[in-house]
Design goal:
Layout (H helix, E strand, L loop, with lengths): L6 H11 L3 H31 L6 H28 L5 E3 H34 L4 H4 L2 H28 L7 E3 L4 H6 L8 H4 L6
Antiparallel strand pairs: 1-2
Keywords: G-protein coupled receptor, Membrane, Olfaction, Receptor, Sensory transduction, Transducer, Transmembrane, Transmembrane helix
Function: Putative odorant or sperm cell receptor.
GO molecular function: G protein-coupled receptor activity; olfactory receptor activity
Length: 203
């Protein structure tokens, strides 16, 4: 008994089409509204911190850094998700997927660093109010910003480099929005394969 040659085509069509257009458009409206609200709120906060001289204290500058990381995080993921939901884009190239994973995770890690700095800022303001002005200056806020981005890049760069080194099956195009599982499903090796565990010069 032979398999019908039309079956792979039918299966592929079913996988690509996914849920109906009503469901996708129904999901896209709240996602779009939340994205616009996030953009407007964070941009307004950044504008206020930059324009008002009374908001040049480290507490408000750290709040501005948090708004900037939120803007980067939302802008690195939501536009592609909306394009998929609206049917404007069904695939994402492997390089763009890796870049999106890198930027989104660096923003997450930077956001956690800024939140830690905000907690330290409030601790110093409460428990050492007389030394607050000397300890937390604009220079310290700049160092926090650079350290947050550097920490995120140092944590994520090895993972992205290792993902890039893996051999992958077939074409390097992902259907829909990239996730960790979609990247892993494209690999053609297991986790203990020498191609994965070997050092760069040993392959």
């Amino acid at each position: 008994m032979e398999l019908d040659p039309a079956l792979p085509t039918l299966n592929q069509t079913v996988l690509i089409s996914g849920p109906g257009p009503f469901v996708l458009l129904g999901l896209s409206v709240p996602v779009c509204l939340l994205y616009v609200a996030a953009l407007a709120g964070n941009a307004l906060l950044l504008g206020l911190v930059a324009a008002d001289k009374a908001l040049q204290a480290p507490m408000y500058q750290l709040l501005g850094l948090l708004a900037a990381t939120d803007l980067v995080l939302a802008t690195s993921t939501v536009p592609k998700a909306l394009a998929v939901l609206w049917g404007l884009s069904g695939k994402i190239s492997f390089g763009v997927c890796l870049a999106q994973v890198f930027v989104a995770h660096v923003a997450f890690i930077a956001e956690s660093s800024v939140l830690l700095a905000m907690a330290v800022d409030r601790h110093v303001a409460i428990f050492q109010p007389l030394r607050y002005g000397a300890l937390l200056t604009q220079r310290v806020v700049g160092i926090v910003a650079v350290a947050a981005v550097t920490r995120g890049a140092c944590v994520m760069a090895p993972a992205v480099v290792l993902l890039h080194r893996l051999p992958y099956c077939g074409q390097r195009a992902l259907l829909g929005f990239p996730t960790h599982s979609s990247l892993i499903s494209l690999t053609s090796v297991g986790p203990l394969d020498p191609k994965v565990t070997a050092r760069p010069g040993q392959r």
